[in-house]
Each structure stands twice: as structure tokens, then as C-alpha cells.
């Protein structure tokens, strides 16, 4: 009896699957290779980024090292005229002889000063009346006998009366209120803004209204007795009062001498003292 022999390939039938296993192994190796390549690319990119940042840091560091620090020069401000808030405050002028009465410095309505009589109707500051009398006596010795004091101390109330009367006079002439006040302001101070209210001013007058001889005396001698021309012709823009050759103000001998040397009116002189 003929029997067919089964073909046998070995002890283990699993050998028939070996080719598939080899293919899987091969695919695994390919995947690992791809992963390695990707990781390598990531590593290269990461390395490039790190190197770039490192160079930037190094460049910044080098630039910082090369920065030149300029030294700020020291300025000597000892002789600099500062006009800002650090400027030294102005000195306060407390000398009664230099008290200012004008449109910007009005005396209070109740201002009072001790006065003495020059004659029966006129008065002057009691502290300076001796100097006024001495100057008047010196005028007489110099041959100036036709001069007298027309006006001296006048209260703030009296000043207001004179001012209002002047305004009314111009209004009657057809001037407007503004025009009347402007014209009055040229020769009459507003109440509280006049040296006469202080008791330190005198208005001189003469028989023939000729002040030539009197002016010559006053220019040479008035400062000896502490008097100055209050409203000079070349200072009208400062005093805001028209030139008055008859109006003289007592400031004291020392101040009068200095004012004449500096060619200053009272407003200028006071400002000068505040800053010097």
C-alpha cells in the first residue's frame, strides 16, 4: 500500500511566519531612523537658536563695555544772575524815609503820621521838619526870599477831595469819565498814593512862578538836607507822574546823595536797594 508522506518543514510550524517578522523588524528600524533624524533636526535648530541668543548677549555686553560716559561739566553759578525760584529773596525796605506811596503802593485810608506845623496852616512829618526848616533858612541866606511852601502834609481824605474835584472839573469841560481821570492822574495822585499823604513832600511856590534860581539852589544843596526832586522829567515813564519842578520829597541826606549819584527816582532807588 502506497502512502503519501506529508511534507514536513521542521519541528516548529511557526517557521512559516518568519518572513513577516523580518518585515516588521525592518519597518521598526526605519521608524527609529526617522525619529532619530527628526530629533537631530530639532537639536540642530535648538542649537542655532541658543548660539544666536548667545551672540546677541555677547554683542550687547560688548556694546555696554564700549559705552562712553560723558562727564557733566561743573558750572560755577556764583556770578550767574538766577531768575528762577532759587533766586535770593528781595530785601525788605523798612526805612520810614523811603516809604513809597504811588499807584501800586496805596496807603491805607486810616494812615496817620505825627506832624508839626511849618506855619499856621501847613504841616510836615515831625521827624524831618528840622531839615525842611534848615533848607528854607539856607535859601534865604542865598538870597531866595520870595519862596514858600505851597503844600505839604495832606490827609488821605483831603487827597480824595482834591482828586474828585479835579475829575469833576474835566467832566464839566465835556470829557468822559475815563478822560477826566486820566487828565487828573497826570498831576494829582489818587488818595493814598501821594507823598503828601506821608507828610514827607513839599510843593514850593514863588511870587513870579520863576523857579530858575530856586532850582539852581536845590540841585546844589537840597541833598544836604535830605531832599530830592520827586518827579524828574526823564523819569515820567517810571513815576507815571508828569514832571513837577516844585515837588520835593524828603528821603534823608544819605539816600538823597546816593539817588543823585545813580540818577534814580525813588521807585528805581528802592528797587536797587532791594537787590543790592
Strand residue content = 5-15%
Large-scale geometry: elongated
> Any idea what the CATH architecture of the domain at 96-275 is?
2-Layer Sandwich
Distance between the termini: 154 Å
CATH class of the domain at 96-275: Alpha Beta
Tally the helices: 9
Topology:
Blueprint: H1 18-65, E1 115-117, E2 123-125, H2 129-141, E3 147-151, H3 156-172, H4 177-185, H5 195-198, E4 201-206, H6 212-221, E5 227-231, H7 236-239, E6 244-250, H8 253-262, H9 266-275
Helix pairs in contact: 3-4
Fold and architecture overview:
- By secondary structure, the protein is α+β, with helices and mostly antiparallel strands.
- It has helices at 18-65, 129-141, 156-172, 177-185, 195-198, 212-221, 236-239, 253-262, 266-275, and strands at residues 115-117, 123-125, 147-151, 201-206, 227-231, 244-250.
- The protein has a 4-stranded antiparallel beta sheet. A two-stranded antiparallel sheet has the order 1-2.
- 19% of the residues are buried.
Concise structural overview:
The chain is α+β, with helices and mostly antiparallel strands and 276 residues long. The chain has helices spanning 18-65, 129-141, 156-172, 177-185, 195-198, 212-221, 236-239, 253-262, 266-275, and strands at 115-117, 123-125, 147-151, 201-206, 227-231, 244-250. A four-stranded antiparallel β-sheet has the order 3-4-6-5. Strands 1-2 form a two-stranded antiparallel ribbon.
Amino acid at each position: 500500500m502506497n502512502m503519501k508522506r506529508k511534507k514536513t518543514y521542521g519541528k516548529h510550524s511557526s517557521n512559516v511566519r518568519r518572513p513577516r517578522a523580518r518585515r516588521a523588524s525592518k519597518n521598526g528600524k526605519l521608524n527609529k531612523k526617522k525619529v532619530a533624524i527628526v530629533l537631530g533636526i530639532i537639536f540642530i535648530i535648538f542649537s542655532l537658536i541658543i548660539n544666536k541668543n548667545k551672540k546677541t548677549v555677547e554683542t550687547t555686553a560688548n556694546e555696554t563695555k564700549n559705552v562712553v560716559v560723558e562727564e557733566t561739566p561743573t558750572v560755577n553759578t556764583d556770578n550767574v544772575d538766577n531768575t528762577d525760584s532759587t533766586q535770593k529773596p528781595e530785601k525788605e525796605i523798612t526805612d520810614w524815609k523811603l516809604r513809597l506811596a504811588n499807584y501800586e503802593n496805596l496807603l491805607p485810608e486810616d494812615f496817620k503820621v505825627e506832624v508839626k506845623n511849618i506855619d499856621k496852616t501847613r504841616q510836615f512829618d515831625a521827624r524831618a521838619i528840622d531839615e525842611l526848616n534848615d533848607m528854607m533858612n539856607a535859601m534865604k541866606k542865598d538870597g531866595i526870599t520870595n519862596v514858600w511852601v505851597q503844600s505839604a502834609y495832606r490827609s488821605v481824605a483831603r487827597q480824595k477831595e482834591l482828586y474828585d474835584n479835579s475829575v469833576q472839573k474835566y467832566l464839566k469841560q465835556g470829557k468822559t469819565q475815563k478822560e477826566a481821570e486820566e487828565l487828573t492822574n497826570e498831576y494829582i495822585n489818587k488818595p493814598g498814593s501821594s507823598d503828601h499823604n506821608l507828610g514827607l513832600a513839599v510843593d514850593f511856590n514863588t511870587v513870579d512862578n520863576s523857579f530858575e534860581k530856586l532850582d539852581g539852589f536845590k540841585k546844589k544843596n537840597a541833598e544836604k538836607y535830605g531832599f530830592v526832586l520827586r518827579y524828574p522829567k526823564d523819569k515820567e515813564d517810571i513815576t507815571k507822574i508828569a514832571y513837577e519842578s516844585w515837588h520835593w520829597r524828603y528821603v534823608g541826606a544819605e539816600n538823597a546823595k546816593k539817588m543823585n549819584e545813580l540818577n534814580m527816582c525813588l521807585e528805581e532807588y528802592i528797587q536797587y536797594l532791594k537787590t543790592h
